[in-house]
Amino acid sequence: MAMVLGLFLGGCVTAIPVVTGVAEGVSYQKQQNEEAANETRMIKFNINISCDGDHEYVDEVDKGILVLRHNKVWIVLRDKDNKPIPPEDNVKPPLHAFAGFYIQYPDDDRFPAERGLVSTISDDPPMLNWIYVDRSTYELRYGNRSGSIEHIVGEWDWTEDEGAVTLEGWEGFVAVDEGDGDGTEWGKEGLRWAVYFDRDDNALKGKVGKKSVLEIIMERKLQSEADQLKQLEDANRKMQVKTQGDMKTQFTAPAADAKRKKVWGK
Questions:
Q1: What CATH number is given for 40-237 in this structure?
Q2: Short-list 215, 224, 227, CA closest to 259
Q3: CA 88/CA 105 separation, integer angstroms
Protein backbone atom coordinates (compact mmCIF):
# COMPACT_ATOMS: atom_id res chain seq x y z
CA MET A 1 0.00 0.00 0.00
CA ALA A 2 2.79 2.40 0.92
CA MET A 3 4.44 1.78 -2.44
CA VAL A 4 1.24 2.52 -4.35
CA LEU A 5 0.45 5.65 -2.36
CA GLY A 6 4.02 6.81 -2.86
CA LEU A 7 3.87 6.82 -6.67
CA PHE A 8 4.52 10.29 -8.06
CA LEU A 9 4.35 11.71 -11.56
CA GLY A 10 5.89 15.13 -11.96
CA GLY A 11 5.59 15.72 -8.23
CA CYS A 12 1.87 14.85 -8.14
CA VAL A 13 0.34 11.67 -6.79
CA THR A 14 -1.45 9.88 -9.63
CA ALA A 15 -5.13 9.33 -8.91
CA ILE A 16 -5.70 5.96 -10.59
CA PRO A 17 -2.92 4.02 -8.80
CA VAL A 18 -4.07 5.44 -5.46
CA VAL A 19 -7.70 4.45 -5.98
CA THR A 20 -6.74 1.04 -7.33
CA GLY A 21 -4.26 0.47 -4.53
CA VAL A 22 -6.75 1.39 -1.84
CA ALA A 23 -9.37 -0.93 -3.33
CA GLU A 24 -6.90 -3.80 -3.60
CA GLY A 25 -5.65 -3.20 -0.09
CA VAL A 26 -9.14 -3.19 1.40
CA SER A 27 -10.03 -6.39 -0.47
CA TYR A 28 -6.78 -8.04 0.60
CA GLN A 29 -7.29 -7.14 4.25
CA LYS A 30 -10.89 -8.36 4.11
CA GLN A 31 -9.71 -11.73 2.79
CA GLN A 32 -7.12 -11.93 5.53
CA ASN A 33 -9.67 -11.20 8.22
CA GLU A 34 -12.15 -13.73 6.85
CA GLU A 35 -9.63 -16.54 6.61
CA ALA A 36 -7.89 -15.76 9.89
CA ALA A 37 -11.26 -16.38 11.53
CA ASN A 38 -11.70 -19.66 9.67
CA GLU A 39 -10.17 -22.05 12.18
CA THR A 40 -11.16 -25.06 10.10
CA ARG A 41 -8.16 -24.42 7.85
CA MET A 42 -5.89 -25.23 10.75
CA ILE A 43 -7.53 -28.53 11.61
CA LYS A 44 -4.97 -31.22 10.96
CA PHE A 45 -5.81 -33.82 8.33
CA ASN A 46 -4.33 -36.82 6.55
CA ILE A 47 -4.62 -37.22 2.79
CA ASN A 48 -6.21 -40.36 1.41
CA ILE A 49 -6.02 -41.25 -2.27
CA SER A 50 -8.71 -42.36 -4.65
CA CYS A 51 -8.06 -43.47 -8.21
CA ASP A 52 -10.42 -45.08 -10.69
CA GLY A 53 -10.25 -46.35 -14.25
CA ASP A 54 -9.19 -49.59 -15.89
CA HIS A 55 -5.42 -49.13 -15.68
CA GLU A 56 -3.61 -52.29 -14.56
CA TYR A 57 -2.01 -50.51 -11.58
CA VAL A 58 -5.06 -48.72 -10.19
CA ASP A 59 -5.31 -51.11 -7.25
CA GLU A 60 -1.82 -50.07 -6.13
CA VAL A 61 -2.92 -46.45 -5.78
CA ASP A 62 -6.65 -46.46 -4.99
CA LYS A 63 -7.39 -46.51 -1.25
CA GLY A 64 -3.88 -45.26 -0.57
CA ILE A 65 -2.53 -42.65 1.83
CA LEU A 66 0.16 -39.99 1.42
CA VAL A 67 3.47 -40.59 3.18
CA LEU A 68 6.61 -38.47 3.36
CA ARG A 69 9.99 -40.07 2.66
CA HIS A 70 13.31 -38.95 1.20
CA ASN A 71 12.00 -35.38 0.77
CA LYS A 72 9.32 -36.66 -1.61
CA VAL A 73 5.62 -37.43 -1.33
CA TRP A 74 4.53 -41.02 -1.97
CA ILE A 75 1.42 -43.17 -2.01
CA VAL A 76 1.18 -46.46 -0.15
CA LEU A 77 -1.89 -48.48 0.73
CA ARG A 78 -3.61 -47.91 4.08
CA ASP A 79 -5.10 -50.26 6.66
CA LYS A 80 -8.52 -50.20 8.32
CA ASP A 81 -7.20 -47.72 10.91
CA ASN A 82 -6.09 -45.33 8.17
CA LYS A 83 -2.42 -46.04 8.78
CA PRO A 84 0.22 -46.60 6.07
CA ILE A 85 0.98 -50.19 5.11
CA PRO A 86 4.73 -50.43 4.43
CA PRO A 87 5.39 -51.97 0.98
CA GLU A 88 8.14 -54.07 2.56
CA ASP A 89 8.78 -55.52 6.02
CA ASN A 90 10.96 -53.84 8.63
CA VAL A 91 10.98 -50.39 7.03
CA LYS A 92 12.82 -48.14 9.48
CA PRO A 93 12.08 -45.55 10.53
CA PRO A 94 8.37 -46.24 10.00
CA LEU A 95 6.72 -44.43 7.10
CA HIS A 96 5.29 -41.09 8.20
CA ALA A 97 1.82 -40.24 6.93
CA PHE A 98 1.08 -36.68 5.83
CA ALA A 99 -0.55 -34.86 8.74
CA GLY A 100 -0.94 -31.18 8.01
CA PHE A 101 -2.98 -28.05 7.61
CA TYR A 102 -3.17 -24.81 5.61
CA ILE A 103 -1.25 -21.71 6.62
CA GLN A 104 0.08 -18.58 4.93
CA TYR A 105 3.49 -18.99 3.32
CA PRO A 106 5.96 -16.43 4.71
CA ASP A 107 7.36 -14.53 1.76
CA ASP A 108 7.07 -10.74 1.54
CA ASP A 109 7.83 -10.86 -2.19
CA ARG A 110 4.60 -12.74 -2.92
CA PHE A 111 1.62 -10.41 -3.15
CA PRO A 112 -1.01 -11.32 -2.45
CA ALA A 113 0.47 -13.84 -0.06
CA GLU A 114 -0.17 -17.47 -0.93
CA ARG A 115 -1.80 -20.08 1.24
CA GLY A 116 0.74 -22.80 1.94
CA LEU A 117 0.44 -26.36 3.14
CA VAL A 118 2.51 -27.83 5.96
CA SER A 119 2.84 -31.31 7.39
CA THR A 120 4.61 -33.01 10.22
CA ILE A 121 7.56 -34.98 8.89
CA SER A 122 8.26 -36.94 12.07
CA ASP A 123 6.66 -37.64 15.43
CA ASP A 124 9.82 -37.49 17.51
CA PRO A 125 10.77 -34.74 17.34
CA PRO A 126 7.50 -33.28 16.02
CA MET A 127 8.68 -31.14 13.09
CA LEU A 128 6.82 -29.27 10.36
CA ASN A 129 7.86 -28.82 6.73
CA TRP A 130 6.32 -27.07 3.75
CA ILE A 131 4.76 -29.17 0.99
CA TYR A 132 5.68 -27.75 -2.40
CA VAL A 133 5.93 -28.59 -6.10
CA ASP A 134 9.38 -28.63 -7.66
CA ARG A 135 9.34 -25.95 -10.34
CA SER A 136 11.34 -28.07 -12.80
CA THR A 137 10.05 -31.60 -12.31
CA TYR A 138 6.53 -30.91 -10.92
CA GLU A 139 7.02 -33.57 -8.25
CA LEU A 140 5.65 -32.95 -4.76
CA ARG A 141 8.36 -32.48 -2.17
CA TYR A 142 8.71 -31.25 1.38
CA GLY A 143 11.32 -29.02 3.00
CA ASN A 144 11.98 -25.94 5.06
CA ARG A 145 11.44 -22.37 3.90
CA SER A 146 14.86 -21.93 2.33
CA GLY A 147 14.43 -25.14 0.36
CA SER A 148 10.91 -24.40 -0.84
CA ILE A 149 10.80 -20.65 -1.46
CA GLU A 150 12.01 -20.85 -5.08
CA HIS A 151 9.39 -23.44 -5.99
CA ILE A 152 5.59 -23.63 -6.23
CA VAL A 153 4.32 -23.22 -2.67
CA GLY A 154 0.68 -22.31 -3.31
CA GLU A 155 -2.09 -21.45 -3.66
CA TRP A 156 -3.18 -24.58 -1.77
CA ASP A 157 -6.86 -24.92 -1.06
CA TRP A 158 -9.77 -27.33 -0.99
CA THR A 159 -12.73 -28.06 -3.23
CA GLU A 160 -16.08 -26.38 -2.66
CA ASP A 161 -17.21 -29.21 -0.38
CA GLU A 162 -13.87 -29.03 1.50
CA GLY A 163 -13.38 -32.70 0.71
CA ALA A 164 -10.34 -32.69 -1.58
CA VAL A 165 -7.07 -30.79 -1.86
CA THR A 166 -6.42 -28.37 -4.73
CA LEU A 167 -3.41 -26.39 -5.92
CA GLU A 168 -3.57 -23.30 -8.11
CA GLY A 169 -7.34 -23.71 -8.32
CA TRP A 170 -7.75 -27.31 -9.42
CA GLU A 171 -7.12 -30.99 -8.70
CA GLY A 172 -4.19 -31.61 -10.98
CA PHE A 173 -2.50 -34.34 -8.97
CA VAL A 174 -1.20 -37.55 -10.49
CA ALA A 175 0.68 -40.64 -9.34
CA VAL A 176 3.81 -41.57 -11.29
CA ASP A 177 5.28 -45.07 -11.34
CA GLU A 178 8.89 -44.72 -10.23
CA GLY A 179 9.61 -48.42 -9.83
CA ASP A 180 9.82 -50.67 -6.82
CA GLY A 181 12.80 -49.00 -5.20
CA ASP A 182 15.44 -51.59 -6.17
CA GLY A 183 18.59 -49.97 -7.47
CA THR A 184 17.35 -46.43 -6.93
CA GLU A 185 18.27 -43.73 -4.45
CA TRP A 186 15.22 -44.72 -2.36
CA GLY A 187 16.75 -48.03 -1.35
CA LYS A 188 14.80 -51.23 -0.97
CA GLU A 189 11.72 -49.86 0.77
CA GLY A 190 9.25 -50.75 -1.96
CA LEU A 191 8.22 -47.14 -2.60
CA ARG A 192 6.80 -46.93 -6.09
CA TRP A 193 4.13 -44.28 -6.64
CA ALA A 194 5.33 -40.70 -6.32
CA VAL A 195 2.94 -37.73 -6.40
CA TYR A 196 3.29 -35.02 -9.05
CA PHE A 197 1.26 -31.96 -10.01
CA ASP A 198 0.27 -31.95 -13.69
CA ARG A 199 0.56 -28.20 -13.88
CA ASP A 200 0.39 -28.00 -17.67
CA ASP A 201 -2.54 -30.46 -17.90
CA ASN A 202 -0.72 -32.64 -20.43
CA ALA A 203 0.00 -35.86 -18.49
CA LEU A 204 3.46 -34.51 -17.54
CA LYS A 205 4.62 -34.54 -21.14
CA GLY A 206 8.38 -34.14 -21.22
CA LYS A 207 8.69 -34.64 -17.46
CA VAL A 208 8.54 -38.37 -16.71
CA GLY A 209 9.33 -40.14 -19.96
CA LYS A 210 7.28 -43.32 -20.53
CA LYS A 211 6.40 -43.87 -16.88
CA SER A 212 2.77 -44.62 -16.10
CA VAL A 213 0.76 -41.60 -14.96
CA LEU A 214 -2.55 -41.98 -13.10
CA GLU A 215 -4.95 -39.24 -12.12
CA ILE A 216 -5.63 -39.19 -8.40
CA ILE A 217 -7.87 -37.32 -6.02
CA MET A 218 -6.28 -36.23 -2.75
CA GLU A 219 -9.05 -36.50 -0.18
CA ARG A 220 -8.90 -34.71 3.17
CA LYS A 221 -9.32 -37.10 6.07
CA LEU A 222 -9.73 -35.08 9.25
CA GLN A 223 -7.87 -36.47 12.19
CA SER A 224 -10.04 -37.40 15.17
CA GLU A 225 -10.09 -35.16 18.21
CA ALA A 226 -8.49 -38.00 20.17
CA ASP A 227 -5.59 -38.24 17.73
CA GLN A 228 -5.05 -34.50 17.75
CA LEU A 229 -5.21 -34.36 21.55
CA LYS A 230 -2.66 -37.14 21.83
CA GLN A 231 -0.29 -35.33 19.49
CA LEU A 232 -0.71 -32.12 21.47
CA GLU A 233 0.01 -33.91 24.73
CA ASP A 234 3.08 -35.55 23.23
CA ALA A 235 4.33 -32.18 22.03
CA ASN A 236 3.74 -30.61 25.44
CA ARG A 237 5.70 -33.37 27.10
CA LYS A 238 8.64 -32.61 24.87
CA MET A 239 8.38 -28.99 26.06
CA GLN A 240 9.21 -27.51 22.69
CA VAL A 241 8.06 -28.22 19.16
CA LYS A 242 10.81 -27.84 16.60
CA THR A 243 9.64 -26.19 13.41
CA GLN A 244 11.51 -25.98 10.10
CA GLY A 245 10.57 -22.79 8.27
CA ASP A 246 8.92 -19.63 9.53
CA MET A 247 5.18 -19.87 10.16
CA LYS A 248 2.43 -17.25 10.26
CA THR A 249 -1.23 -17.53 11.14
CA GLN A 250 -2.90 -15.43 8.45
CA PHE A 251 -4.45 -16.72 5.27
CA THR A 252 -5.24 -15.16 1.93
CA ALA A 253 -7.33 -15.68 -1.19
CA PRO A 254 -10.79 -17.27 -1.46
CA ALA A 255 -11.44 -20.89 -2.29
CA ALA A 256 -11.23 -21.71 -5.98
CA ASP A 257 -13.40 -24.04 -8.00
CA ALA A 258 -11.64 -27.27 -8.91
CA LYS A 259 -11.74 -29.13 -12.19
CA ARG A 260 -11.24 -32.76 -13.05
CA LYS A 261 -9.33 -34.46 -15.81
CA LYS A 262 -8.83 -37.86 -17.39
CA VAL A 263 -6.56 -40.79 -16.58
CA TRP A 264 -3.40 -41.48 -18.49
CA GLY A 265 -1.04 -44.43 -18.51
CA LYS A 266 0.88 -46.64 -20.84
A1: 2.80.10
A2: 215
A3: 35
